[in-house]
Predict the 3D structure of the following.
Amino acid sequence: MASAAAAAAGASSLQSVRVVLRVRPLLPSETSSAAASPCVSLIGNRPGGEVTVQLKDQHTSRNECYKVDSYFGKEDRVSDIFDQEVSSLIPGIFDGINATVFAYGATGSGKTYTMQGSEELPGLIPLAVSTILARCTGTWCSVEISYYEVYLERCYDLLEPKAKEIMALDDKDGNLQLKGLAWVPVRSMEEFQEVYSIGVQRRKVAHTDLNDVSSRSHAVLSIRISNDTVKGKLNLIDLAGNEDNRRTYNEGIRLKESSKINSSLFALSNVISALKRNEPRVPYRESKLTRILQDSLGGNSRAVMIACLNPVEYQEAVHTLSLAARSGHMLTNMSSASKEQTPKVKVDMEAKLQVWLESKGKSKSIQRMNGLFSPTGCKTPSSMSHMKQPKSALVSSRTKAMDRDGGKIKKVLFDLAVHTPAKNTPRSNSRDEVKTIKKVVPPSLAPCIEDKSESPIRKALSPISSNVMALEQQIADDVNCPSSLEPKTPIGACNVVEKIPVGTPLDKFNALGSNLKESLIQQYLDFLNVANK
Ligand SMILES: Nc1ncnc2c1ncn2[C@@H]1O[C@H](COP(=O)(O)OP(=O)(O)OP(=O)(O)O)[C@@H](O)[C@H]1O
């Protein structure tokens, strides 16, 4: 048993990105819901090695298996995650090896709970700070923190709010420098609490349909240690949640935030994917988030991605775990039961698309889609019927949220004693391994795959784009259509529809303008990302 634990520790320190799954418990508001049966289960693990999880959609019989490095379920505490995944990174920082821990997942999946914690259960951030401070006690080592957020692709200091936007620049040696970022020395948990709680209150949060206190920015807490010879850094990142705006009904600024959040998370997934595949070029410059993390992701740095899941949201879970897939952890397989269902799944998907378009009043769009995909006569799948109806007004309650969180964190940090790691306890896993087979990409996807550098499955797993407004603007600009076009109306709808020739669906598609093609492809991919692939 001891040698297995040592092997596990060794493995974790050798891997550059570990993917850890964190499934939160059902919330009281969810347990009463009809759709409250969990969609995720642990089905197998190897001591010290990867674990296999299964996602199952209760509305269809679809299920998929994924491999991750470890699994934390509803009975596991944040301190368990810290002991098993984060504490092993800390000695490396004292040897100058940077590390990054980031919580990734849909809105409301428990990222802030995991990173920041609550009054009773401190999160990974306070646990890490207390462990680092304890290690520095009686040495010449100094500890400093910075805390900043990436909001709408701009970087702001949360400890020095009057400072200008933080710029990511390369110095003469090619090392990344965050110009304008404040580093505040901390010598005790009390000092840390004082500084951090102020920063937490400044972070941008808002009420959304899916989370009362939803983070609207990515927040990065960096802990830097320095002694005479070495500087090392640990980044602890609470990412904003990826959002499907067809569920959130975001509008205005919330929609704009959501669009930036989703595109930067996509950029992050590209970086992780490139790192896991040892690709020669890592696309750090695709977003501000990846750019500022350039010196902490890749190279000899270590990273732990905590993929957070809401246990009852199958589609979100698929989307979140797709990031793990991109980083080489997914079993690109389905159970044999689900293979038999592949044609049905495809039909359901098209029916869902029709229903969705109909619900948006897009009968013309349906006709055009029917030119691209085979027509179906299916009824609305039951899985669509549980979708939320839009609320008439979304109330921003940042002040409320700040009161709640700011107050809480202050207490958390005051109360926190230096964290003593608990002994690692092996998990009991009596579940049977499922037999898996290779996943099939529906042939109807083929014309949509334009990017030659990416595999079809990878493209199909792209994140949900929420650039509705930007897309509309682009459509209006590009084809000079009236600005009164409804959201998601395909490009050039006003001019192009009559010109579509008769012939095969592919002929019709090829005859469309490039903007219209791009729009249709994007819409189809968007749809696939929230429907069965
Ligand atoms: N492990 C857990 N145990 C109990 N409650 C939890 C747990 N994880 C999350 N929650 C609760 O779930 C709700 C949503 O969690 P949280 O705000 O952390 O989500 P999030 O992923 O940070 O969302 P967003 O991306 O919108 O900021 C909160 O009420 C939180 O207290």
Q: What stands out?
A: The mean pLDDT is 68. DSSP finds 20 helices and 18 strands in the chain. The longest strand covers residues 142-151. The longest helix spans residues 252-276.
